[in-house]
Amino acid sequence: MKTYPPSYPSPTRGEGSVLAPKEETTQKIYKVSEITREIRAILESQFPAVWIEGEVSNFKHHTSGHIYFTLKDEAAQINAVFFAKANQFLKFELKDGLKVICIGRISVYDQRGQYQIYVQRIEPKGLGALQLAFLQLKEKLEKEGLFSAERKRPISLYPKRVGLVTSPTGAAIQDMLKIFKRATFGLRVYLYPVRVQGDGSAGEICDAIDGLNRLDETLDLIIVGRGGGSLEDLWAFNEEIVARAIVRSKIPIISAVGHEIDWTIADLVSDFRAHTPTAAAEKVICEWDSLGLKLRESRERMPNAVSNLLEIKKEALNHLSTSYALRQPLAYVQQLSQRVDELLRQMQNYLKGIFQEKKQLFRSWVGKLEALSPLGILERGYSITFDAEGNLLKEAEKVRLGTLIRTKLKSGIVKSKVTEIGD
Fold first, then answer.
1. Ranges for all domains in the chain classified under CATH 2.40.50.140
2. What strands lie across the sheet with 253-257, from one edge to the other?
3. Which residues pair with 119 in a beta bridge?
């Protein structure tokens, strides 16, 4: 930080000439990068998430995948950046002249010193209210953990009883039935007809899910869905009551709403999301098809496998039929008997040797113990003396006159009375 010396006037004065005498102060001088960073921090803290309405102009989709454009109205404009990671889920074509609502954060691009919006989501104008409702419900359910993988149930690999919750007249049901007709394993389909858009459709979908859960015959899974459409058309699957019905279902649910680019709350809470109704039907029969193919391949390979196995066993049998054991079974047994006798003799000799070795070792240890025994000195003419209680006497001064003592010799014990004690 630079400061002006006292001999120079501060660059900031009150009213009047800068040369007018004032109380001398110090003033920080910013570098361009410093003031830019501070402005950016202020903007980011004040506008972390804003909704801005305007018209797209100067649209450019860069080869990097990032989208750059200007958002303007009749009086002003602001530059916008839509990074590739964020725009990959864009559901419509963005172009000049399109009026949109952008959701993002305001910041500063340092190199040019210009403020701009970093877009996180964008919708055509007129869908902002629905989109906001979608985001708010999504945030609420996500906090409750309803989107977590741990909560979701596995889909049966080989389902045989499938419930459908969809319109009986829509294209989705026709597409799924075409797939189901390929099934050769006795698939049973239970259709619960509902409206899939318009007022009251969400309630019908909830009733259908609950109704299929109450069937006497337990289903393996339920498919809930419809064909593609606009956000308004698909809105029944963004209703909270539908999400709650999917969550409380005891039967695993596949959501198959719209096309691959369409995402609904039902997709997020369901146990499996199929990008189209056709894909959901394929999910039902794919493992059955795979199993059928494996069975057909196994059936085709079985004759060759059995034939090869019989050849191998035949060769083994021929080998055994020419073996010495089968040609001379008695001689083979006699050889084994002779071998047993030989091993028995070897074992006896081995045990005998071990016994002699241990006996000799025992005698050696006994001799060493006898040599170390205090009784061994008696053999050489020495004696050992004990008091009346049997304690060994080592020092004469510890014996009192008149005390009875016992002296052990090589042969026998001599009892005596102490009449004199000397050195």
1. 32-126
2. 188-193, 161-166, 221-226, 253-257, 272-273
3. 104
| pLDDT bracket for residue 395 (50, 70, 90) | confident
Span(s) in the chain for CATH 3.40.50.261: 152-289
For residue range 44-60, what is the model confidence (pLDDT) as tens digits?
Answer: 899 999 999 999 999 99
Nearest Cα residue to 294 out of 283, 305, 302, 306: 302
Q: What is the spatial distance between Cα 337 and Cα 372, in angstroms, rounded to a whole number?
A: 53
What homologous superfamily does CATH list for 152-289?
Succinyl-CoA synthetase domains (3.40.50.261)
CATH of domain 32-126: 2.40.50.140
Residue 22: per-residue pLDDT: 53
Taking the C-alpha atoms of residue 381 and residue 3, their distance in angstroms, rounded to an integer, is 116
Q: Which of 201, 259, 250 is nearest to 229 (CA)?
A: 259
pTM: 0.45
Query: With contact defined as beta carbons under 8 Å apart, do 206 and 168 qualify?
Result: no
Q: What is the pLDDT of residues 65-76, one digit of tens each?
A: 999 999 999 999
255, 200 Cβ separation under 8 angstroms = no
Of 167, 357, 135, 155, residue with least CA distance to 268: 135
Tell me which of 28 and 255 has the higher pLDDT. 255
8 A C-beta contact, residue 219 and residue 212: yes
Q: Report the C-alpha gap between 306 and 311 in whole angstroms.
A: 9
* Angle of helix 277-321 versus helix 171-180 axis, rounded to 10: 10
216 is written with which tokens? 């006497």
Contact 400, 420 (CB under 8 A): no
CB contact set of 50 (below 8 Å; sequence gap of 6+): 103, 104, 105, 106, 117
Region of residue 163 (left: phi > 0; alpha: psi -120 to 50; beta: else): beta
